[in-house]
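Anyone have tokens for Integrase zinc-binding domain-containing protein? Sequence:
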Amino acid sequence: MGDVERDARAKERTILRRDGVVARIRHIHQLATSLATNQAVRPQLAVAIQDLDALWASFEVENNDLLSILSNLNLLTEFPVGLDVEIRSYVLCGFCDASEKGYAAVAYLRVTDPSGATATYLLGAKTKLAPMKTMTIPRLELNGALLLASWLARLKRILEFQLGISDVFAWSDSSIVLSWLNIPHTSFKTFVSNRIFQIQSAVPGCCWQHVRSEDNPADCASRGLLPDELKRCKLYWRGPTFLQSPVAAWSQEIPQLQLEELPEVKPVCLLTREDPPVEWFIRFSSFHQMIRVVAQVRRFIRLCQKRKVELGFLKQSELDEAMLVIVRSAQECYLSQLVVGLRRGSPVQSKALARLCPFLDSDGIIRVGGRMQNSNWSERRKHPMLVPKESHLAVLITRHWHLYACHARPRLLIALVQQRFWVIGVRLIVHRVIRKCVLCAKMSANHPQPIMAALPGFRVREAHPFSIVGIDYAGPLQMKELSLRKARIVKVYIAVLSV
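Reply: yep, here.
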């Protein structure tokens, strides 16, 4: 009796030796691989092998998880598998999950008989340990989805010719991963983008859906179960209960997160450049020609609309309408915010424009207010049209009046322009137009002053008094005879004698 107990203790000591434990784990790993049910304990077995060096540093093994796994490994041979229905349709289903220990993928085959009864069978599970480098849970979940996608693609390629897989479904309990898969992969960083592309390329027709964590059989494989717990886990062997329901009854709700709420989004450097507004009359160089062209175009439009139009010379009313069209276009181009604010009745934000008391007339033109409403002036003079200084129209108006007034100087030119238009910053526009006028530049040019000739010798040489006398004349000059208001004005000539 003592020999039997001694042999038993010796056998236990042999098992707990380093070489014995490694050999036992390798044997069980091969056995479980053949059963395709070792996926739930493989992470713990692999971790146990990695930790053997640290465990045997004190020549003792105190890993209770390892002892529990070894004592229950004989239960691996008692798990039931097999098909027991007459099959008519096949659906490939997969689940993935991840934890800090690793990530896993579980695949099932959903079969339906002619009567409509369904059954699910476990095809197997795959697990991988989490990398030694710390990785976020969403990245681990994405790795689990990639593991599932590649495995489903392989299973479909193998079983499609024999069974004819009709559909492929995949589930994940990660809202972030499902949101990643519904957004173009180019929006994310390299790590996430590459794996999303691989998942979409592996199973292009796969339908990804959301599953609760308590209904996810891959959770058992990712976190790990002992063999006795794995035997009693129906969720792992048969899958969640909703697989027994018709496909149309499966939940299609996928929690969709916005792009700005997702991690791993690729930063985008965006440079916005606002092009300056371009006026359609920018090519005109003459104000008078521009008005006439617009008036002719408006007359042509009326003719195309088969409206009554008087042909012949353009009337003043047509020219005025063309002017309103041009001014309205310039205001909408450069004063669009002011136009919108006046239409809404909002106060003017700009202090410089608020001093002008702008308002919209019946034609939609911004005009300048003021205190001249009760004067006898015409309406267009009391309330001139507002023209922005950036507009090409301001230059054409100033140039037109500059030529019309025979190259008037700044003060007169400003007075002429303001009879009908109120150009913002009109002084700058006026000086710019005059400075660019070729004729004004020629007329205001400084004439060269000729060098005077040398004085004659008798004017600069020494001589006796009155021997040489010089006479200089000046005139005519105007002079009053008396200091009275109506005194007679006479001409005066001057003779200057120099001795």
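Residues 1-15, 33-41, 57-62 have pLDDT under 50 and may be disordered.
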